[in-house]
Amino acid sequence: MADVLMQDDLFGRLPEKRPRGVQAAAPSAEDQALAAALSPRIHLGTSTWSYPGWEGLVWAGRHSESTLAKSGLPAYAAHPLLRAVGIDRGFYRPLAASEFQRYAEQVPPGFRFTVKAPSLVTDALLRGDTGRGLQPNPLFLDPTTALQDFIEPACEGLGSTVGALVFQLSPLPAQRLAHMNEQFDRLHALLLSLPKPPVGVIAVEVRDAAWLTPDLVALLRDTGARYCLGLHPKLPPLAEQLPLLRALWPGPLVARWNLNRLHGAYGYEAAEQKYGEFREMLDPDPDTRAELARIIRATAHAGQDVFVTISNKAEGSAPLSVRALAQAVAASPS
């Protein structure tokens, strides 16, 4: 012991080791209190987690996008308000059960994932690198492909962390829009063929207003799937989608707030350029937040689960949008 003390006197104490890897930003007392005020049925989060600009909001330090994509999820899930996150990468390439399992092992109990189905199933067109449709997709809404390349691996890998398994249907080409009855029949057949997940829900999100009819309500009722509230300029505003939600009441709420309406239907690039590193809420949309908060409160009060993910392109910074939405939910309704 004396030798150790002598070494400390002669050479100084060794500096403490800095934690390695991605560390979570220290939660504020306000965020902790707000999280405690929310029902455990309410799962709010962002559309993904790999943004270096969230330093101080989510991360304790600065990290590259690739580092955050690989190693940032545990730090993200440590944030008291972030109880959900989207997995969008499977939209471009089907993921294996082992990949989903790796995500599930990095989050605490009560955390939930919203997962997009592969475009192999949800896009009526096969597209090139620029996104231009090249030819019809023979596997559009194919039940076997949906089951083997999406539902089974997601349920096996994610287990109890499944929140919403979302079939986000890409914009339909004109020839399919002209024959919507056929599209409804295809979607109905697909959903009927799928097993109900042990936890969470299967949901349908659309990009064409032509889907928003009583036929969609009927097939969702018949199959037990949910409508995913899509907040995107390609669709009518939230208030105009409420009749569809009411027709399916009660049930879990699935919502994805994708893009602020002021940018227009094709405004992702404009939003990305304007919002930079996604550290500030540059285009707040309190009206949408207030309406969404009202729906969330009512859903949770009815004993149903809520799965809401928000993009940086909604207001400028997804973590700040989650905080503001949580504040609106926790506030006493007027």
Q: Would you summarize the structure shown here?
A:
InterPro entries: DUF72, UPF0759_sf. This protein has 334 residues and is of the alpha/beta class. It has helices spanning 2-11, 29-37, 65-71, 73-77, 97-104, 119-122, 143-158, 174-177, 180-193, 214-223, 238-247, 268-275, 286-301, 312-315, 318-330, and strands at residues 42-46, 84-87, 112-116, 125-127, 133-136, 162-169, 201-206, 226-231, 253-257, 306-310.
In words, what does this structure look like?
This protein is of the alpha/beta class and 334 residues long. It has a single domain (28-330), classed as Protein of unknown function UPF0759 (TIM Barrel), CATH 3.20.20. The protein is 41% helix and 15% strand. It has 15 helices and 10 strands. The protein has helices spanning 2-11, 29-37, 65-71, 73-77, 97-104, 119-122, 143-158, 174-177, 180-193, 214-223, 238-247, 268-275, 286-301, 312-315, 318-330, and strands at residues 42-46, 84-87, 112-116, 125-127, 133-136, 162-169, 201-206, 226-231, 253-257, 306-310. Helix 2 (29-37) crosses helix 15. The longest helix is centred in the middle third of the chain and has 16 residues, at 143-158. The model has no long low-confidence stretch (mean pLDDT 93). InterPro entries: DUF72 (IPR002763), UPF0759_sf (IPR036520). This is DUF72 domain-containing protein. Pfam families: DUF72.
Summarize the helices and strands and which ones pair or pack.
Elements: H1 2-11, H2 29-37, E1 42-46, H3 65-71, H4 73-77, E2 84-87, H5 97-104, E3 112-116, H6 119-122, E4 125-127, E5 133-136, H7 143-158, E6 162-169, H8 174-177, H9 180-193, E7 201-206, H10 214-223, E8 226-231, H11 238-247, E9 253-257, H12 268-275, H13 286-301, E10 306-310, H14 312-315, H15 318-330
Helix pairs in contact: 2-15, 5-7, 7-9, 9-10, 13-15
InterPro entries: DUF72, UPF0759_sf
Organism: Pelomonas baiyunensis
Protein name: DUF72 domain-containing protein
